[in-house]
Amino acid sequence: MSRTANPRSVVPRSAGGSTPSGILGSPLSAEGGYFQRSQLPLACLFFLLPFMAIYEVGTISMPQGRIVASIWLQSLFKYFGISAATVAHFLPPLALMAVLLAWHLARRDPWRLSLRDVLAMYIECSILSLPLLALAAWRLPFALPESDLAKHVIASVGAGIYEEFVFRLILYTLLSIFLVDFLKMGEGRAVLPIVCLSAVGFALYHYPGHGVLVVSTFLFRVLGGIYFGLLFVTRGFGITVGVHACYDLMLLPLSVLHPAAGELFSRQ
C-alpha cells in the first residue's frame, strides 16, 4: 500500500506520564527480551537505515518513485522557509532520525545494539506481512498497471517509512493528545479509536482529489491500516514500517503469479 506522486513525535508515555515506555504503557527495557529490545528507538533506527538509504538514493535517480507522504513532509519544511530542493529532499529522513535519537536520549538507554535483534526484525517483518498478503490475494479484482519494477521497489520501501511516519507515528500522537489530554479519555480506551481513525485517514490518503473511491478497495485499505495500527501499538514503529514495506514488496512476485494484484500496490 503506497501512493506515489504523479511526474508530539511518538515518545510513548508510561501510566504515570513521565517515563517513556511501550506504546500500551508497559515499560520497555534494554535489558529485556527481543520483543522489548526490538521496540527501542535505537534498534528501530538501525533497522530502518537500509530502507531509508534505498528510498532516498533511489528517488534521486528516479523521482517518479517518490511517495506522496514524503512530499507532504518536504512541503511542511518548505512552509517554514526551507525551500532549497536538495536540502528539502533529505529533511524527512533527517527528521525521522532526529525523532528516534531524541526518543533514545529521553529514555537514557545505553548505546548498545544487538545485530542479532536487527536481523531477527527483518525475519519477523517478513512473517507478519503474510496475513495482509493473504487478504490481498483473496480479494484481487484489478488489472496490473504497466509500471517500472525499480519504481515499485523504491515506492514500496518509501511507503513503509513515510506512510507509517505520517499515519502512525505522527497522527497517532496527535489523536492521542486530543483524546487523552484534551478529552481525558484513558490511554487504554483511546487505543481502539486512535487505531481506527488513523486507518481511515490512511485509506483516504490513497485516493487523491481526482481518484474514484471504490468501496471494496477502501475497506481493504482500512483493514490494512488497522492491522498496521495494531502492529504499531504492540510491536513498535520499526516493525510496523518493515511489515508495510515487506507487504508492498511481496506484492511484486504475487502480481506475476496473479496479474490482478496490481491495483493493490498503490495509486500511481
Describe this structure in words.
By secondary structure, the protein is mainly α. It has helices at residues 34-37, 41-61, 68-79, 85-107, 115-128, 130-138, 149-182, 187-205, 215-257; strands at 2-3, 266-267. Residues 7-21, 141-146 and 262-268 have low confidence and may be disordered.
What is the makeup of the main sheet? 2 strands, parallel
The pLDDT mean sits at 81
Report the structural category: mainly alpha
| Helix run count | 9
Q: State the share of residues found in helices, binned by percent.
A: 55-70%
Could you give the count of β-strands?
2
Order of helical and strand elements: EHHHHHHHHHE
Specify Rg, calculated over alpha carbons: 18 Å
Low-confidence stretches: 7-21, 141-146, 262-268
Residue fraction in strands: under 5%
Shape: globular
Strand order of the largest sheet: 1-2
Separation of the first and last Cα atoms? 11 Å
Keywords:
single chain, 268 residues, mainly alpha, two-stranded parallel sheet, 9 helices, globular, disordered C terminus
Question: Strands, helices and their partners?
Answer:
Layout: E1 2-3, H1 34-37, H2 41-61, H3 68-79, H4 85-107, H5 115-128, H6 130-138, H7 149-182, H8 187-205, H9 215-257, E2 266-267
Parallel strand pairs: 1-2
